[in-house]
Amino acid sequence: MPDDMPxxxxxxxxxxxxxxxxxxxxxxxxxxxxxxxxxxxxxLNDDERHQIGIAYKQKGQAAAIALGExxxxxxVKAARVAAWRxxxxxxxxxxxxxxxxxLRSQIAQQWLxxxxxxxxxxxxxxxxxxxxxxxxxxxxxxxxxxxxxxxxGCAKTVLINQLEESVDLEGMARHKGSAFGRSPxxxxxxxxxxxxxxxxxxxxxxxxxxxxxxxxxxxxxxxVTFWQAMEKAPRIRVEMPLDWRxxxxxxxxxxxxxxxxxxxxxxxxxxxxxxxxxxxxxxxLKKRLGDARLKRLQRMQALAFAAHEQGDRQAHEAWLxxxxxxxxxxxxxxxxxxxxxxxxLEYHVGDWESCLAATRQWLAEQQASGR
Length: 371
What we know:
By secondary structure, the chain is an alpha/beta fold.
């Protein structure tokens, strides 16, 4: 295998510049986490990779390479080279990578060059660039942060997304952060979440505005160094009346959720899946709600769904209001009390508009001080 083929350093600029990337690892590896924006056009499928791995362990590298040349030959090889070439024709700046920038990406690069499309591979591959992306996330823990907190339904996500300096963790996690926050879209792999966070942070060298979150958001976890910095950061707390928050929840968890499901699955199946999701979310709170309260909320939710089918979406207030006042609000106030006892600094407390203004004021102060 020639060793003079072109390579590129594993620089985060490749991610920041959104360079097209071909990930030649097996689909099972790609599913566990890829570099941002990459497409999976594998040299080996999962079964082939498994067979070659056994050969390598039992007989060594030469035997594994020989088996690979047998498995990926003829029409199989031609199809894979054609897939790479078609992508390169559509994306002339595309680059290749495998796990460590080793044999697989070298083979793909050589075969592609023989087909008339020479493209560089990432030196050190996925592993090297992931290391630099993780370092960017850890480094961001040293940047000034403002955390936007508040009771459920205070439109904190909407607030932070008014600002160029925002880091929307829930958007990256595809989850709104509560038992009711699941999205119809499948959640990202943990590694993909971390890489999305790193990519966002590459363009934010200064102060950051982040919504208050638990470390776990849906199925993913905020990297520990970054989350610890969030825990120590000052806060702006949004306070809004119950009726305002209910209107926001109906928009977020009823109207927009229904739209998302129906767009993805069609009107009938989407409606059924939405009801299942909200019903299952209540059941997941059974331990904390208790049997009697759960059954009461389930009856009220069922009546709300019936009214919803008749066009009355506001009927959901009947079960959302007690869910807030009896469960989420006390839970948040307990969390707030513990933060205050730990000495958390509150920069401002007020309604949504005043909190947005206060956040902009804090950003201006940070920028004026050169942070």
